[in-house]
Amino acid sequence: MDEVEVVVAHSERATLRVGDVFLKVDGDQARIDVEIEAMSLAPVPTPEILWCKPPVLAIAALAGTTLGRLGGPSTGSPAAWAAAGAAIRTLHDAPLPSWQGRAGRSVVALAAELDVECELLVTNGVLPADLVARNRQVAEAALRPRTPAFTHGDLQIAHVFVRDDEVTGIIDWSEAGRGDALYDLATFTLGREERLDDVIAGYGTGIDLDVIHAWWSLRSLLAVRWLVEHGFDPFAPGCEVDVLRSRM
Questions:
Q1: Which of 17, 81, 97, 238 has CB atoms 3.0–4.6 Å from 198's, for a disulfide?
Q2: Is residue 29, in this structure, part of any structural domain at all?
Q3: From CA 36, how far away is CA 21, in angstroms rounded?
Q4: Do the beta carbons of residue 73 and residue 191 sit within 8 Å?
């Protein structure tokens, strides 16, 4: 019998691997519904859905490997990163889904959430005030009107698989929907600034680097407390706190 590997687990959801099958356990049926619908619409390679028996979604493993993980070593050739950029552009150019995604939160709501989070980071002594203030200033460039695109919403490098410099699949679509294309690009290159040029080479035009930098700060500011509370370490080398320090 194959061993059960815990890929990721926290109070909201968990992903297990049994042989060549991934089992995603999520108590929020809406997230499972979004994941299934998004994978059916996305014009990029996605995993095969084997079955769905709420709260469990079973999907087949993908060929290839990821380009790394936040805080870990960066893998893959420049051509592989460019191929990922091209796949992301294909997604962003696709017809829009009918629903808003994580990357589609309104500017007003996002600014309000960010201000509350920044205050909590300082008052609770999680991060120094000057570090928070500087990154809040950088983040302002992301709070602007934007044309919506079909976005993944959680496009971490661990969610993109490649083999022989080609994308074999993209996983974890529960946050997908209409949103800011540059949010996806910033998420994909978070902590990987040295790979941004390779990704852009594949993605093409229409990229405002100030907005990419802004999303790095904004995403990291919003993530730090959640990560700590759910058993992750944003202070590990190369992770969110180091991303914030790089803006100083």
A1: 81
A2: no
A3: 16
A4: no
CB 238 within 8 A of CB 71: yes
Share of the chain above pLDDT 90, in %: 82
Q: How many CB atoms lie within 10 A of CB 176?
A: 29
CATH of the domain at 184: 3.90.1200.10
> For residue 146, is it within any domain?
yes
What is the mean predicted confidence (pLDDT) over 65-82?
Answer: 90
Residue 94 located in a structural domain: yes
Q: What is the DSSP string of 125-162?
A: TSS-HHHHHHHHHHHGGGSS----EEE-S---GGGEEE
- Quote the Cα angle for 195-196-199, to 5°: 90
121 is a domain residue: yes
| Residue count of the chain | 248
Rg (CA), the chain: 18
Full residue range of the structural domain in which residue 69 is found: 63-245
Domain count, the chain: 1
pLDDT range class, residue 168, cuts 50, 70, 90: very high
DSSP per-residue codes, 4-31: EEEEEE-SSEEEEEETTEEEEEES-HHH
Residue 179 confidence (pLDDT) = 96
Enter the pTM of the model: 0.94
Question: Angle at Cα 75 formed by Cα 74 and Cα 81, nearest 5°?
Answer: 95
Q: Which amino acid is at 68?
A: G
